[in-house]
Amino acid sequence: MSKSILIPIAAGSEEIEAITLIDTLIRAQYKVTVASVDPEGELQVIGSRGIPLTAQCRLVDVADDEFDVIALPGGIGGAETFRDSTLLLEMVKQHHYDGKLLAAICASPALVFQHHQLFPNALMTCHPAFRDTISPSKWRDKRVTLDVNHKLLTSQGPGSALEFAIEIIIYLSGKAFAWSVAAPMVTLPNLNYQDLGKSRV
């Protein structure tokens, strides 16, 4: 059965992060739903660098759907909209209660998860500009950080977006399958995916 991923977007979402998530997870043949969190219900929003991003639906249209992962791209403007969305927060809380993976990158771990103290005991990372929002005992200076106990995946920024997306695939489908997705993308050797095909989960 195909995995189902929710990727919210809003005005100010970081384009590299959003598109990398969408593209890579579609390559994994997951069902990817891109939902607008725009307060006015607009499906097309302008990203943090002025690039239009288009959602398939409004968040309210999928509020009752179940997903295997909710993955939040960063970008300050987008993360602030996520932070202020009562509906998204309720979905995130229910998703967490159900024991499913939550993922966030760049500003979103700080401006959404930390702001609302959704993971007070979890290890996490975020964009270095926001590291002061995370307790030093919980901060991890890693490009991608997975807290298995809290089912929380976080990452630092646009440059780590591909690693972040691949880690979602590893979590859902194992290392061998992740390698089958990463190899045709000609990922950089320092992403350490060249040996994933030799491992099995």
How would you describe this structure in keywords?
18% strand; disordered C terminus; 9 strands; two-stranded antiparallel ribbon; seven-stranded mixed β-sheet; alpha/beta; Rossmann fold; single chain; globular; 201 residues
Q: What would you say about this model in short?
A:
The protein is α/β, with parallel strands linked by helices. The chain has six helices and nine strands, in the order βαβββββααβαββαα. It has a single domain, classed as Rossmann fold, CATH 3.40.50.
Shape, per Cα inertia axes:
globular
Q: Main beta sheet: strand number and arrangement?
A: 7 strands, mixed
Tell me what portion of residues adopts beta-strand conformation.
15-25%
Order of strands, main sheet, comes to 5-2-1-6-7-9-8
Distance from N terminus to C terminus (CA atoms, Å) equals 18 Å
Radius of gyration: 16 Å
Proportion of helical residues: 25-40%
CATH class: Alpha Beta
Contiguous low-pLDDT stretches (5 residues minimum) are 196-201
Going by helix content, strand content and strand pairing, the class is alpha/beta
Provide mean pLDDT, rounded.
94
Per CATH, the superfamily is Class I glutamine amidotransferase (GATase) domain
CATH topology label = Rossmann fold
Query: In the residues, how many domains can be counted?
Result: 1
Number of helices: 6
Protein name: DJ-1/PfpI family protein
Domain DJ-1/PfpI: 3-169
Pfam family, one: DJ-1_PfpI
InterPro entries: Class_I_gatase-like (IPR029062), DJ-1 (IPR006287), DJ-1/PfpI (IPR002818), Prot/Nucl_acid_deglycase (IPR050325)
